[in-house]
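Exam prep: given the inputs below (a chain plus cobalamin), describe the expected output before reading on.
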Amino acid sequence: METVGCNFESGKIFLPEMMESAEAMNAGVEVFKTFIAEKGTGALHNIGKILLATIQGDMHDIGKNIVKLLISGSAFEVIDLGKDVKISKIIDEAEEKEVNIIGLSALMTTTMGYMPEIIEELSELGLRKEFKVMVGGAPVTEEWAKEIGADGYAKEAVGAVRVAKELLRK
Ligand code: B12
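Solution:
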């Protein structure tokens, strides 16, 4: 998908081809899901609840779906709100479902700006201490995660599982 992104950027391929690649990737993830369900430990016990969402304005969900796959295979209950999810919906659902962690994904520099907005909104509502906030997605960095006051960041899905477990321990 990285190559696809570079080819799109340099004008070698266009949106329909990027969409085709995304569909192929999602189909591959579906195949992988069966394997994770068989080998994962998800069915054994539930160590915590995590809400996952791709932030508002952002339709990219392949990475978030991979994070979901690995996290749900690691004994977490995952509440997946999908993509292009409004800040208010994320906070309402997190409260209603009493999750431990809110995991936010953004793939565009234009949409990652909503991540600090959620953190600020949680503080204003007096809910900041109720949830750990974990962020990720290609343009998100560890430095930026720190800057916006997120509790955790991971570059990829395996790291996301490790960070989620660390956040639960805290
Ligand atoms: C596939 C794709 C699409 C697909 C998305 C399909 C889908 N269902 O997701 C489609 C074709 C729809 C699309 C549309 C667009 N796209 Co696009 N897309 C991509 C592409 C090629 C790959 C993204 C991807 O899936 N990567 C593979 C996954 C596995 O990686 P990942 O998402 O980074 O996820 C991993 C980690 O980041 C991490 N992670 C992810 N989420 C989270 C969350 C947490 C909590 C944690 C801890 C970790 C974590 O773990 C994941 C697994 O290891 C990227 C290029 C790139 N290099 O990223 C462009 C890219 C993101 N798109 C881009 C653009 C511009 C667009 C469009 C605006 C194009 C247009 N002209 O319409 C639209 C935007 C639509 C919208 N409003 O969102 C730009 C963004 C540029 C920018 N500055 O922000 C990119 C970078 C391409 C480019 N080089 O120009 N896109």
